[in-house]
């Protein structure tokens, strides 16, 4: 069993996945980790880490090699967690089997090791020597709760519960736009139909692709404007996917629309016409996978 080490900006509960900035660093860690290995988390010396946690051992994780998207499990609500494009900096994760927090007073890394650690310890994981590992495992620690996936919560308890739990807490110090783009949101595909004549069934015309914090409210708004009861178009439930952030939901909306460039209606580029349900479902699944790779 190996004890690894990585540098982090903080450690809180519930504990999310072991995180990486790129798929490459995650892939490297997956090739290194063996069952039963643990990873010690040490606060960086940078300003992103609270002063009392800098260069100190904060927690311990027992990761699996199961890849997950970090924002499915945690809330990111600090400006420094995002780049200039509003993208989360540490989106790639490995699911944890267990986690612990080291008890106060937290020990400095220098008390465990006299080595200097390179950038690998900030981007990936580095192995500790047997002596260093023994010192880490001897530190008093307390089991920590693991975060649950927003996607799994939505499956078990419903979209509304998942969306409320995933929403960043309000604060007066955060800009409104940045706050909202980090709140959970849906990408949706509403089935667009025209009323039938006589005994004819309604005619399937296409799909309205978009994103919204509340897709059902958006559908009601569209139907109120279209007045299907008086012969107008009907917007009905089609497909939806709940994302941990509005930015991810927007990215998926754009990815789906790009898949149907020639099918987009000339008067409303968010409507794709003349496509089958199978075609939309195939593009839908493909775009979910594409956006998950980005976030």
Record the SSE blueprint.
Blueprint: E1 3-8, E2 18-20, H1 23-32, E3 38-43, E4 57-69, E5 92-102, H2 120-123, E6 126-127, H3 130-137, E7 141-143, H4 150-157, H5 159-166, H6 176-181, E8 185-194, E9 203-212, H7 215-226, E10 234-243, H8 246-259, E11 264-265, E12 268-273, H9 277-294
Parallel strand pairs: 1-3
Antiparallel strand pairs: 1-6, 2-5, 3-4, 4-5, 5-7, 8-9, 8-10, 9-12, 11-12
Helix pairs in contact: 4-5, 8-9
Order of helices and strands: EEHEEEHEHEHHHEEHEHEEH
How many DSSP helices?
Answer: 9
Give the termini separation. Answer: 31 Å
The helix fraction, in percent, is: 25-40%
Counting helices, strands and paired strands, the structural category is alpha+beta
As residue ranges, the low-confidence spans are: 167-180
Structural Rg: 23 Å
Strand content: 25-35%
Which word captures the global form? elongated
Number of strands: 12
Oligomeric state: single chain
Main sheet makeup: 7 strands, mixed
**Average pLDDT:** 83
């Amino acid at each position: 069993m190996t004890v690894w080490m990585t540098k982090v900006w903080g450690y809180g509960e519930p504990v999310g996945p072991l995180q990486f900035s790129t798929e490459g660093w995650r892939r490297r860690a997956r090739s290194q980790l063996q069952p039963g290995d643990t990873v010690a988390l040490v606060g960086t010396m940078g300003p992103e880490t609270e002063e009392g946690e800098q260069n100190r051992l904060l927690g311990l994780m027992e990761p699996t090699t199961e890849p997950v998207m970090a924002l499915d499990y945690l809330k990111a609500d600090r400006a420094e967690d995002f780049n200039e494009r509003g993208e989360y900096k540490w989106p790639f994760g490995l699911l944890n089997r267990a986690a612990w927090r080291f008890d106060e007073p937290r020990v400095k890394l220098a008390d465990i090791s006299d080595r200097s650690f390179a950038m690998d310890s900030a981007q990936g994981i580095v192995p500790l020597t047997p002596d260093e590992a023994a010192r880490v495992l001897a530190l008093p620690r307390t089991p920590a709760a693991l975060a649950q996936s927003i996607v799994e919560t939505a499956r078990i308890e419903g979209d509304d519960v998942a969306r409320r739990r995933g929403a960043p807490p309000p604060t007066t110090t955060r800009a409104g736009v940045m706050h909202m783009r980090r709140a959970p949101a849906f990408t949706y595909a509403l089935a667009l139909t025209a009323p039938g004549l006589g005994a004819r069934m309604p005619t399937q015309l296409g799909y309205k692709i978009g994103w919204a914090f509340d897709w059902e409210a958006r559908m009601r708004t569209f139907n109120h404007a279209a007045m299907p009861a008086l012969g107008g178009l009907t917007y009905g439930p089609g497909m939806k996917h709940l994302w941990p952030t509005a930015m991810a939901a927007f990215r998926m909306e754009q990815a789906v629309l790009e898949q149907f460039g020639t099918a987009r209606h000339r008067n409303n580029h968010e409507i794709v016409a003349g496509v089958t349900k199978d075609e939309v479902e195939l593009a839908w699944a493909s775009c979910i996978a594409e956006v998950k790779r980005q976030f």
